[in-house]
Here is the input.
Amino acid sequence: DVVANLDPENFSGMREQAAAYLLRAAAHFAVYCLTGRDDEERLERARRDLGQWKDIEGAPQPDPRFFSPEFAALTRSIR
Here is the structure.
C-alpha cells in the first residue's frame, strides 16, 4: 500500500516527487530486508527510486535520524 500511495505522479511539485521517490525506495528496501534479502527485484526497485530521487535533488544523503545506516549506504552506492 505504501508503494502504491507514494507514486510520484500523484504529486505535482518536484520536491514532493523527490520525497515520494525517497520514501518509496525506503519502503522497497524495508520489504527487501524483512523478507530475507532475496528479492532482487525489490532491491532493484529501491535503487531505481533512489536514482530518480538523486536526479531531482542532486547528491543528497538521507537524514540519519530517520534512515538506517544500511539504507544510507545503499543511497551512496547510487550514481
Notes: The mean pLDDT is 94. The helical segments are 2-5, 14-34, 40-57, 69-76. The longest helix spans residues 14-34. Residues 10 and 73 are 28 Å apart (CA to CA).
